[in-house]
Structures are given as structure tokens and as C-alpha cells.
Amino acid sequence: MAAISLDLFFAPIPELNALLVKREISAEDLVRAFAERLERLGPRYNALALPLPQEAIRKAKRVDQDLKRGRLRGPLQGIPYGVKDVISYAGQPTTWGAKPYAGQVFDYDATVVKRLDGVGAVITGKLSTVELAGGGGYRYASASLTGPGLNPWHRTHWAGGSSSGPAASVAAGLVPFAIGSETSGSIITPASFCGVTALRPTYGLVSRHGAMALSWTLDKLGPFARSAEDCGLILQVIAGKDGNDPGSAGKSFYYTPQFARAMKDLTIGYAPVDFTDHADPSARPAFLAALEALRSTGVKLVETKLPAFPYGAVLSMVLGGEMGSIFEPLIASGQVDQMADPSQIAGLKTSQEVLAKDYLKAMRIRRRIQEAFSGLFTQVDVLLAPGQPGPAPRADADLDAPGPAAPEGTPPGLQGIVPAGNLAGLPALVLPCGFAGGLPLGLQLAGPPFTENTLLALGREFQGRTDWHKRRPPGVA
């Protein structure tokens, strides 16, 4: 195997693709190097659920044959990647991160895996997750078959949930990109804590067929990668109509940065208190610097606020009702008691008590939320907020412990944007934006449904003016 430089483990997809197409490196050598790195370093962060080196090398050899014959399949051809272990890969365990499902094997690939395989991307491993993607709520990061997700920037801190494995693996250069999932924050949070770029697509744009269901009307799959451009290239492959997913929007996505709107034509709504009073004091200088970097792109920043709804309560009711139905067999069988976190066990059991009238009331309010956001997006093109108000907590912290409170009378800002965005099915892009105490911070940009190209163009412009997305965790070799 040819030697692979450390720089290549942190290279963006277009750079890796150019080397493969020019045959300056073989797909087999690239995949072998990443597969070995994932298997060697993945356990350091409790990020690896299942290594797949032999299958990956076989696929890489086929990619090399195609490249030799000039059969080019796009920028992901020959690029290694991983998937969160809620996504099925035929013939291999898909544990959903939970002891009751440790031996679960499906005989088919998830649609996202099929689509990536179709363009020559090479899966090198399954990546860790919080048990059942966090369904039921969990109090400690250790709620996972693989142990607490550890942050590559400092292993005493959490990688974030529930897509801890994808975020940590991209941050540590174990895979060039990964596919994770979000129901309410599971892409936004780990991407922010680990300092990587990630995209939560519009609800229905990416098929969930073959992925664990936690909430039929909230679940989404999306990419973690090095840059906004990488996310656009990945989304173009994994998006699209799928009759096997009843929630499919029936739409395709084409990454078209050449047709992006001028930055001066974009109006971004934000709440200044999110970057000051609501932010962790250690994070405020970095957030304010990131705001100025965003302002320098030429966009117009205007103060705004979210429509007044009880977003958290509505999302909890919708999730509880759907989760309770999905996991009824697990709970009724008593196997739920095998799970690691008592809070999560209790939350799953409580989901059996959700009343139909309360679920339906929540869904009616949800419709009003969607209409209110349609109105809000006639005034602004994009919403901006911190991905999280501060850096990652310690991996052994009580996640239920309340954070620092803002001074009494402080406006709420856009604090409800994560549950609101998931209820309304909005796309969101996470961008690394600086550090606090040596740990990464992230911004999130949310837009109307199916405006991923606008978000990606804004992200690309921001990343062209900053280098936070290029930083590497210290000591990762």
C-alpha cells in the first residue's frame, strides 16, 4: 500500500477525487488507509460500531478498474465513508446502538447506501450512535453499546448525540464523510460540538428506507463532511424520490453553486441575544467574530424572532406518540429494560401513555407552526443561530442538568430553532465558527423547505473567508 500523508485524511472530497481521477493514488490504497485508520482510531472515541475493511477493499478494487477504463461516476467515486449504525447494510449487524438489537441483521441495504454504492463511494464502517438514536431521552452520554461518544478535540468531553460516531469520525479524519440522522438536533448538536460541517436536509428530500424509525414525521438523514461544498456533492447523490419511503417528497437535488444568489441579495434573520446573553461566556468572543465574518460576505443581517409556539412541548408530544407505537414490541416484551440509561427506559415506557387526542392536537399546532414559518420566510431568506450556545460538556456530565440562565427579562431569541426547524421540516446547515476553551463551536443556518442550495452557497462563502472548518484536533495522527 502506498503511503498516505496525514493531510489526505483531512482533505475535502474534490481534492481526493482529483487524485483518484488523475490516478495519482489508487482507490484501493485510499480505502485501505482510511479503513485501517477507522479501525485503529475509531475505538479511541467510541465512534466505531462495525469495521468493514474486507468488503471496502473489494469495492475499491472495482472502482480502480472503472477508473482505469475511464468510467467516471462523479466526485464521490472511490471516496470512503461511514454510516450511523441506525442505517442498514445487508448481511451485517445494524444494532441501533442498543443491547436488545445487538444481533439484528437486515438482508438489504438502505436506500442511501444503495445510492452511494451506485456512484462508487466505498463504505468502510458503521459508526456509533446513542441507543435508539436517543429515543425516550437519555441522561448520560454512556447510553450506547459502544460507550460515550468522545470528542476528538478533547476526549474528556462529549461528541454530542445521537450521531456521535459520524461527527467524531469526520472530525478525527477517520472518514472523509459520514451519514447521520436527526429527529430533533442529532445532526446539529454533534456537528457543532465536533467542529465539522453538516447538513440536515428538508424533511422528505432524502429517503429513510432502511434506517431505524424513531418518528415517521420527523426523522431525516444527512451528511457530515469537511465543508459546505462536500455536503452539496453528497446530498446530490443521496437525495431523490423513493417509493419505499412514505415520507419521500418526490424531489431530486442538484448542487448548483454556479447559480447561487448574490450574497448582497440575502437577508438573514437573527437575534443578537443568542450570541451574547444566551451564549456561554467563553463562547461569546468567537460567536461575535463569526457574526462579523458572515456580515463581511455582504448579506443583510436583521433582527428577528421566532413565531410564539411551545416548540419543545409540541415536538415531545409528536415524538412520544410515534415512538411509542414504533417501539411498542420492545417495551411490551420487557427487553427495554436491557438498555443502559434508566432515564431512557422510563421515557420509552412513558411513551405508551400518550393519548390520541393529545397527539392530534400537537399535529394541528404543528401545522400552524409550518404556516407561521412560511410567513416568516417572506421577511427573511435564512435564519441564523448558534448550533449550541457553548462548547461540548464533559462526557461524564449529567445531560439533564440546566445550563447557565440568561439574566431575567432577556428575550428568548431563536432558542427554539432546533425543535421548530424539525417540526416545520426545514433544512439547516452547520458551520464550524471558532473555539471556546479549545473546543469547537458551530453556527446553524436554517431556510425554507428545499432551499439547500442557498444555505450551501452561504456556507461556501463563509468558509471561503474563514478557516475554522480546516482546523484539526490536536494530537490526532
Give the topology, please.
Blueprint: H1 13-21, H2 27-41, E1 48-51, H3 53-68, E2 80-84, H4 111-118, E3 122-127, E4 150-151, E5 154-158, H5 164-171, E6 177-182, H6 188-194, E7 197-200, E8 220-225, H7 228-238, E9 267-270, H8 284-295, E10 300-303, H9 311-326, H10 328-333, H11 342-350, H12 356-376, E11 382-386, H13 417-423, E12 428-436, E13 439-446, H14 452-465
Parallel strand pairs: 2-3, 2-6, 9-10, 9-11
Antiparallel strand pairs: 1-3, 4-5, 6-8, 7-8, 7-12, 11-13, 12-13
Helix pairs in contact: 2-3, 5-6, 7-14, 9-12, 9-13
Note down, in words, how this protein is organized.
This protein is α/β, with parallel strands linked by helices. 33% of the residues lie in helices and 14% in strands. The chain is built from 14 helices and 13 strands. It has helices at 13-21, 27-41, 53-68, 111-118, 164-171, 188-194, 228-238, 284-295, 311-326, 328-333, 342-350, 356-376, 417-423, 452-465, and strands at 48-51, 80-84, 122-127, 150-151, 154-158, 177-182, 197-200, 220-225, 267-270, 300-303, 382-386, 428-436, 439-446. Helix 9 crosses helix 12 (356-376). The radius of gyration is 21 Å and the shape is globular. The chain starts with 12 loop residues before the first helix and ends in a 12-residue tail after the last helix.
